[in-house]
């Protein structure tokens, strides 16, 4: 199984952000932990602060991967273009947010992109990525995404 993990803006700096919201781990550490835990999964990882680059990766995903885990960062609240790209992508998709959005500012309550995914996980810091892998694997085995 091949899973693409996409992280949006500012997630290249998560270890420098508010630890109470984002945890204290650099994403490279999170990715290594995922690889150790899920040895049957081939992970690809891409992070960009650019909306267009994320959209290009989403467009490619259905041709290459069995599942997609996306943390669109702030684009979750603003990007109709990423939402539309996710709708086109026909593989299992889980959106992850490190922080608990329900406890954050009002503008973070509107998730445009999550409605184009199979589900979303919020507030569990790096554990969210682990749970997203389990969800993608289960969705992939239960459904036909062709």
Radius of gyration over all CA atoms, rounded: 14 Å
Overall average pLDDT: 91
- Low-pLDDT runs: none
How many domains, in number, for the residues?
1
Largest sheet: 5 strands, parallel
> Which structural category do the helix and sheet elements fall into?
alpha/beta
The number of helices is: 5
The coarse silhouette is globular
Which CATH-level-2 architecture?
3-Layer(aba) Sandwich
Estimated share of beta-strand residues: 15-25%
CATH topology: Rossmann fold
Distance between the termini: 16 Å
- Subunit organisation of the chains: single chain
Give, in spatial order, the strands making up the sheet with the most strands: 2-1-3-4-5
| Sequence of secondary-structure elements | EHHEHEHEEH
CATH fourth-tier homologous superfamily: Dehydroquinase, class II
Keywords:
single chain; 146 residues; alpha/beta; Rossmann fold; five-stranded parallel beta sheet; aromatic amino acid biosynthesis; lyase; 3-dehydroquinate dehydratase; DHquinase_II_sf; 3-dehydroquinate dehydratase activity
What's a quick, concise take on this entry?
This protein has 146 residues and is of the alpha/beta class.
Question: Could you explain the architecture of this structure?
Answer:
- This protein has one domain (2-142): 3-Layer(aba) Sandwich (Rossmann fold).
- Helix content is 37%, strand content 18%.
- The chain has helices at residues 19-22, 27-37, 51-64, 80-88, 127-142, and strands at residues 2-7, 42-47, 67-71, 93-97, 119-122.
- It has a five-stranded parallel sheet, with helices on both faces.
- The protein is globular.
